[in-house]
Specification:
144 residues, 7 helices, globular
């Protein structure tokens, strides 16, 4: 049975040879525990923090970067851990991804322009400016 795009989850994109198996009596790291809890959650049901964390780990970028952009279009300072944590996570998206996803790259450039208009921008201006500088470099760089 094929899942719809809305019902897809991270587990659907695990390589067959690396299907997630919990080893008995092994203590999980916080990242492993998070992944175990979220791997079967449909992409559309993940929180902004989950999307941010997955992107930071470069998990399912093809599926999650568009979701992150939508969240950032609604709120450029989106974040559950701290204001702007989703924007910060987008710095981890490889330059090669942006060079092959032109529409998403252009949408992300617009998000970057809108950040400075957000009411929370001034609260963390120095940190956000640092994030924006790196992100803008990634969005305009040639394929690496």
């Amino acid at each position: 049975m094929n899942k719809s795009k809305a019902d897809s989850c991270m587990a659907d994109f695990e390589p067959e040879e690396a299907k997630y198996i919990l080893e008995p009596d092994r203590r999980l790291t916080s990242l492993e525990s998070w992944y175990h809890d979220k791997r079967l959650v449909p992409f559309g049901e993940l929180s902004a923090w989950d999307v941010s964390r997955a992107i930071t780990q470069r998990i399912c970028l093809e599926q999650l970067v568009p979701i992150a952009i939508e969240l950032l279009q609604e709120n450029p300072m989106a974040g559950e851990w701290y204001e702007g944590d989703l924007l910060d996570a987008m710095r981890k998206v490889p330059i090669a991804y942006w060079s092959t996803h032109i529409g998403q790259r252009d949408a992300m450039k617009i998000v970057c322009e809108r950040v400075v208009e957000h009411e929370d921008y001034k609260n963390d201006q120095a940190d956000i400016d640092s994030i924006l500088d790196e992100l803008k470099k990634n969005l305009t760089a040639d394929k690496a």
